[in-house]
Each structure stands twice: as structure tokens, then as C-alpha cells.
Amino acid sequence: MRTAIIGAGIGGLTTAFYLLRDRPEDEVHVFEAEPIPGGTMRTDTIDGFRFEAGGNGFLTNKPDSLKLVEDTGANDLLLPSSDLARKRYIFTDRLHRLPEAPGPFLGTKLISWPAKLRMAGELFVPKRTEKGEETLQEFGYRRVGKEFTDVFLDAMTAGIYATTPDKVSVNAAFPLVVRLEQEHGGLFRGMLARRKKQAGPGGILMSFKGGVGSFLEHLRTVIPAQWHLGEAVTEIAREGEGYRVRAGDFDEPFDRVVVSTQAHAAAQMLRPLDTELAGRLADIEYSPVAVVGFGWRELDHPMDGFGLLTTTSAGLPILGVLWDSSIFPDRAPEGAKSVRVMLGGQRNPELVDQDEAGLIATAREGLRLTMGVDKAPDVTFVQRWDRGIPSYRRGHIARVDALFAYLQRYPGLYLGGNAYRGIAMNDCVRNGRELAEQLAQDSA
Length: 444
Ligand SMILES: Cc1cc2nc3c(=O)[nH]c(=O)nc-3n(C[C@H](O)[C@H](O)[C@H](O)COP(=O)(O)OP(=O)(O)OC[C@H]3O[C@@H](n4cnc5c(N)ncnc54)[C@H](O)[C@@H]3O)c2cc1C
Description:
Helix content: 25-40%
Largest sheet: 7 strands, mixed
Bound molecules: flavin-adenine dinucleotide
CATH class of the largest domain: Alpha Beta
Number of domains: 3
Oligomer: single chain
CATH topology of the largest domain: FAD/NAD(P)-binding domain
Structural class: alpha/beta
Distance between the termini: 11 Å
Number of strands: 20
């Protein structure tokens, strides 16, 4: 069986790994437009500072990434975040510590007393009975109140999806909270029930020594595929029962093809095959986001935590700041400090259009306003993602279900990656592994 996997992000690599582990007799070709695998998971080292172009790790509250690490023999690459990383901040009118327990929550000045009472009233909000997707804002206003939503849920959505609560489907982006409501009648009730079941400790943020890029590079070395790095696939055409894959001078037949690229890239290569399929793929929108990293050999700021997120109402030019060298000390040389500033998203998409100097200036302004840091950095890193994170707008689940139902008319053609059913590394790994299982099943 000859399989082409297009896109060597974490999703495509996971599919390639498990497929070849379970069917070593298969011939698997991996195509990646960039010269290195990893997609948005890439680490750049500049003068001893390590900057992640995208995510900096995964949470251990789900088993998928840890299992992939173990299955690929990379346990010794694992790097847990420092205990300091549990301390998080939100910037509204000033920096506030994010309360993690009921006691500190009662004392927080992030929201008013009436808002705290409204939130406690969640216990008495009836379960939603209407069908169809809600935005996170609709869900939040209904269950926990406007003020809580506009502070906590707004900051959280900026941090995870680079979007805003009114633009994201709660069902697609936060399925767990919807399940808590549906299965237990509410969030408090659901969380209590889950806590009783899961007696063990919650998850922590985990990364890799040398940055996430070291794990992605490790995957390349342990996947016995035929590699086509730096080769962008331009077209997938039907041929008999299978497909032809075209990439530059490469033009060969495959029994099946897995497209694990961003949805808009998939649309482009599939348009000659089926314009409707391409249209459905192109309909999945992305949020633009820029990552600006700074390193200082000396900086007089405690950076005693994970970092900070901002709220829309704070009116700041940045979404948040990750205090990288506090989370994973190996990201900066001994005694030095580093941060990454996130900006743009659905909140301020126009900011991502700036040139590099503009992005740096905006990020420094954000640091000045939130952390009081004005010192010129010794090292700077800039990564612009014009289409960084799939938006999962309202109706996303219905759109994706219809897309996959439509795909049924193309046996041997599969879609993978973060555009459809989860963006976190754990989701991409789970979906990538399940896709490999489906491929193995379909060849039986
Ligand atoms: C700024 C940022 C921060 C994030 N932070 C976190 C985090 O902290 N934790 C977390 O769990 N997740 C995080 N994420 C999300 C997570 O990293 C991504 O969802 C995940 O890495 C996506 O993997 P993927 O394989 O679906 O896609 P991608 O990584 O996008 O890979 C797709 C690949 O397809 C390739 N490709 C495109 N077109 C073609 C073509 N024509 N031919 C061949 N190859 C092609 C691309 O070059 C790319 O390498 C973050 C994402 C971003 C952008």
C-alpha cells in the first residue's frame, strides 16, 4: 500500500508514525513545503535564547502527547514546566493574579461582588435545551454572567485561540464545558463530579529540552518514511482507484492520500479535483497572530509566573505575554530572561499586517504598558502567522461534519490536522493517531 501524507506538522507526523508502526510493510511518503518538519511547532535559537514560533508544549491532563513521546522513545527529551508557571496574571486596569481557588477568587478585584454572586448563581441556571451551536459569549453570559465572561473567558480565548468569545463556537472550541452542562446540569456540578472521579493531580504544562523543535526533529528521525522536505504539493488528481500527487517535478500515483495541511492549503491542492470540496475547505477561517520574542541578558523584573493575558476591555495592543524563561529555564542563558508577546488575533487582526519593525514596536509598547518593562532587548525574534489558528466560528461542527460527509465520495482521500476537531497539540496527536488507525482498518 502506497500512502502520501501531505503536511509534516504534528498532526501529519503522528499519522505517519503510527501508520508505519502498525503497517511497516506500507510505503509512506511525507511531503512538507518547508525545509524542516513541525509546521507551527518550531524552535529558533538566537544567541543562546530559544524562541518557539508557536506553542511551547502540551498539558499532561490528556494522555495523547505523552503516549506519543513514550511510543517514539523520547521520554528523556521531556521537560516539565517550573512550579512558578502555575502563577498566572490577567491585565484589566492593572495586573491581577489569576485566582486558582475559591478563597483567592472571593478576594480578587478582577470582577465585582455582584459579578461573583452572579457566578455563584450558575448552580441554579437551567440546562440549555435548544439545539445548535452557541458562541462562547452566549454560553458565558447565560451561565456565569457578563462580567465573568468579559474578563476570564475573554482573556482565556485570546490565550488559546487568539479570538474573542463572540466569534468562537463554544461547542467546537470548548466541548468539555458543554458536556459538563449537558451531562451534569451545570459547570460547578460537573466540575465537582469530575473531581470526585479523578482523585489524582491535575495536568501540568510539559515541553521538551531544547524546545518543541527538538521533539519534532526526533519524530523525523524515527519515522521510516520517504521524506520530501521543501516540496510543496501543488495538486492531487484522481487516478483509477487512487490519486496522483504533484509536487514540483514529482508526479506519482498513490493508493491513498492524507492531507494534513491547513484547510486553505488543502483547498488549493484539491480545487482541480473538486471545486465544491475546495470551497468547503476554504470556508474554514483562521485568526492571524504574531509572536514577538525578546531576550535580555539582564532584566530587573521578577517575572514570577507563567505570564499574563489581557482583556479586550483593557484596550491594549497585545493579547498576552509568556514569561518563557520562567516557565522553562532552558529557554534563556543562565541569568538571562526571555518573553514572547502575542498580538493580533480576532481582537486586532490589523496589527499582524505591520512590518517587522512595527510588530516589534507594538510588542514593546505592550510590555511597557503591562509589565513596566521599557529596556531595549538584546535579542529579538519575530514570527507572523497570517493564518495562525483555525477560528472555529459558530457552526464549525456542522460545517466540519458536512465536509467529512462530502469527503465520503472520495475513498482513499483523508483530511487531518488542526482545522477540524481540536487545535491543541494533544488534540492533533489524538486525531493523527486515530487517522492512522482508520487507515490501517481501511487497508484490512
Ligand atoms: C502562535 C501559536 C501558539 C500555539 N500555542 C499552543 C500551545 O501552547 N499548546 C498547544 O497545545 N497548542 C498550541 N498551538 C496550536 C498547535 O501548535 C497547532 O494546532 C498544531 O501544531 C497544528 O498542527 P498541524 O499538524 O495541524 O498543522 P501545522 O503545524 O500548521 O502543519 C501543517 C503543515 O502543512 C504544511 N503544508 C502546507 N501546505 C503544504 C503543501 N502544499 N505541501 C506540503 N506541505 C504543506 C505546512 O508547511 C505545515 O508544516 C499554538 C499555535 C500557534 C499558531
